[in-house]
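Section 5: illustrative case.
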């Protein structure tokens, strides 16, 4: 069977055994080169190679096929595509190393663009969070990790007296513009600057993924909540299970940094929340719409085709997807985008 990849190359007539052997040899060559050059270290610097992401997608797709979701042709097409990707390894450059940066550094830089349309996670999360917020009694509301005030503004429009806390000065500046009557603090969620039993509602949207210790932040939320108060949490999910994709950014100095991100299982939130006396009233895990890409590689959510990946830049997974359309759609299939 002939097969064309997203770059229009065709793969014909190789036996699967030869393909598998070639894949093993090429993978070993890349691994040896990585070890020789010190790429593999135990420091917190992370290493992102575009091929690592693409081959990871292929791997997830193959596991889905192995479990029965896809057929023989799909599996063999994946093996050929892996071979082709490895054959063109040099076109992807050497990948990038990124050092950890603080969320203040990361979000201060992101703030001017954060509210621009096109963030699918926010579009998926927002209607569900708003539906919950709209059903709760009006009072004093804390937006914890309020960012640019996306939910703070909605809470204010519902009549709440709103307080926002965030560590990013630039994100807070946007929130202050949006909600001039709000009370805002440049503080950490680990140490919320409010007295005990002082708020009726805490909202923490897509912020906990940045915290290593869920328990401490949740304990702070419970401390400031009045008895019978409400806590609404949303968070991003990993690509698969506990595999999160850290946000990588090119800093003003040209250096590459990433914000550590913790992808959690639903049970991790429960394990942190239940001992604090919190009771779960509702839980949603809205999925990323599937398929993610059309046959032409365009993201179906917004119809956008991103520019080709630039070797030496941090790999943009969205640009890479069109190099492995079927694998991307299979790997992302059924992925929860958020937990609420
Ligand atoms: C993805 S944004 C979400 C912003 C807003 N809640 C929303 O949903 O649009 C994550 C926010 O968490 C903030 N953040 C991260 N770690 C924090 C911490 N330890 N304490 C306070 N804010 C934090 C960041 O500065 C950023 O504004």
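Designed sequence:
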């Amino acid at each position: 069977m002939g097969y064309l990849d997203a770059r229009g190359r065709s793969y014909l007539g190789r036996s699967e055994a030869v393909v598998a052997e070639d894949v093993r040899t090429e993978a070993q060559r890349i691994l040896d080169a990585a070890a020789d050059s010190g790429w593999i270290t135990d420091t917190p610097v992370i290493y992102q190679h575009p091929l690592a992401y693409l081959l990871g997608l292929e791997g997830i797709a193959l596991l889905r096929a192995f479990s029965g979701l896809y057929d023989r042709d799909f599996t063999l097409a994946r093996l050929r595509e892996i071979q082709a990707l490895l054959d063109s390894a040099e076109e992807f450059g050497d990948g990038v190393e990124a050092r950890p940066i603080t969320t203040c550094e990361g979000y201060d830089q992101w703030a001017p663009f954060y509210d621009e349309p096109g963030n699918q996670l926010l579009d998926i999360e927002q209607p569900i969070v708003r539906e919950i917020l709209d059903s709760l009694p009006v009072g004093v509301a804390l937006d914890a990790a309020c960012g640019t005030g996306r939910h703070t503004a909605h809470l204010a429009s519902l009549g709440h007296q709103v307080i926002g806390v965030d560590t990013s000065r630039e994100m807070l500046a946007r929130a202050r513009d949006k909600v001039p009557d709000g009370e805002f603090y440049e503080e950490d969620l680990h140490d919320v600057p409010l007295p005990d039993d002082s708020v009726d509602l805490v909202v923490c949207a897509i912020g906990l993924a940045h915290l290593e210790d869920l328990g401490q932040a949740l304990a702070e939320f419970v401390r400031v909540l009045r008895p019978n108060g409400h806590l609404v949490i949303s968070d991003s999910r990993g690509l698969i299970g506990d595999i999160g994709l850290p946000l990588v950014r090119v800093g003003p100095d040209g250096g590459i940094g990433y914000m550590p991100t913790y992808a959690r299982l639903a049970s991790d939130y429960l394990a942190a929340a239940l001992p604090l006396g919190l009771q779960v009233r509702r839980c949603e895990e809205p999925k990323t719409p599937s398929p993610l890409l059309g046959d032409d590689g365009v993201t179906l959510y917004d119809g956008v085709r991103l520019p080709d990946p630039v070797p030496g830049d941090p790999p943009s997974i969205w640009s890479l997807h069109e190099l492995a359309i079927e694998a991307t759609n299979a790997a992302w299939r059924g992925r929860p985008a958020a937990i609420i």
